[in-house]
Amino acid sequence: MPNHKIAVLGATSLVGESLLASLRSGTEEVFAFSRSSVPSQEKRFQNISWFTLDSDLYALPDNVFYFVSLAPVWVLPDYFPLMQRLGVRRLVVLSSTSLFTKEDSEDHSDRSVSLRLKAGEEKLKEWAEAHAVKWTIIRPTLIYGGGKDKNISSIASLVHKFGTFPLLGRAAGLRQPVHRDDVAMACLAVLRCPQAINKAYNIAGGEVVTYREMVSRVFAALEKRPRYLSIPLFLFKYGLFVLRAIPGYRHLTMGMVDRMNKDMVFDYSQASRDFGYTPRPFALSRTDLPSVL
């Protein structure tokens, strides 16, 4: 890369942790932006400078050619002034395949997420083109890893707490869980790839499994024998209402239940061709689950 300055928005996020881990030993000068304070373990890396999002724009570096946004795409317009101040010319933005999988959901909050993703992507493309900034959008499927996601980690928490997992019907919907490290590597790879300029890519994990099999592998990672509870839809709705009253489960929606039997797979061959994307299979380890379990 001709310019070795990279800014990362959402540096303490699930994917942000993986991205910074990859950049620590590199030659790039990294400027990490986060809402929270600087993680103490990060202070020892000399090539990474930390900023909170309320930092004075005039105290920021300039000529930062590359910018990777790992924050929700719909909040990105709030940071267009930041990117202009930094002098960004190349932008990589993390979005989500939820743009497609939630657009026809019966759950209003799911449809709202899809609409916000779509609007966020359109706004960033309009801004980038108006300011001669080259962009790439990365849309991953269900992300896991590090024990901090709201997908696999939520399943693991339920299994640990109750020793069983509720399923609607056969739970035969297909999934492609993608590890956060593979998402981070994709973000870095497109920075160096001219073929990826002004394109959007769907990326997924390297293995297709049913929802039921995905949960079975969580049981296995916890060294537990799979135990399922088949529940009728009306009881599922009541149980979900009760569960959402418990801290840590308030993000669960009926749309998640409905999608247990819906296929949510995506072709990532274009990403493989353009920037060599080769994701790992869905092999859960204990480090992929919450540390408190």
DSSP helix count? 10
How does the major sheet shape up? 7 strands, parallel
Label the overall shape. globular
- Number of strand segments: 13
Low-confidence stretches: none
Classification by helices and strands? alpha/beta
Strand order of the largest sheet: 3-2-1-4-5-6-11
The chain-level mean pLDDT equals 90
Name of the CATH homologous superfamily of the domain at 5-146 and 176-210 and 265-288: NAD(P)-binding Rossmann-like Domain
Encode the helix/strand succession as letters. EHEEEHEHHEEHEEEHEEHEHHH
Relative helix content: 25-40%
Q: Report the portion of residues in β strands.
A: 15-25%
In the CATH hierarchy, what is the architecture of the domain at 5-146 and 176-210 and 265-288 at level 2?
Answer: 3-Layer(aba) Sandwich
**CATH topology term of the domain at 5-146 and 176-210 and 265-288:** Rossmann fold
Q: Compute the CA-based radius of gyration.
A: 20 Å
CATH C-level label of the domain at 5-146 and 176-210 and 265-288: Alpha Beta
End-to-end Cα distance, whole Å, is 42 Å
Walk me through the structure.
By secondary structure, this protein is an alpha/beta fold. It has a domain at 5-146 and 176-210 and 265-288: NAD(P)-binding Rossmann-like Domain (Rossmann fold). Helix content is 34%, strand content 17%. It contains 10 helices and 13 strands. The chain has a 7-stranded parallel beta sheet, with helices on both faces. It has a two-stranded parallel sheet with strand order 7-10. The protein has a two-stranded parallel sheet with strand order 8-13. Strand 4, helix 2 (80-86) and strand 5 form a beta-alpha-beta unit. Helix 1 (14-23) packs across helix 6 (180-191). The radius of gyration is 20 Å and the shape is globular. The model has no long low-confidence stretch (mean pLDDT 90).
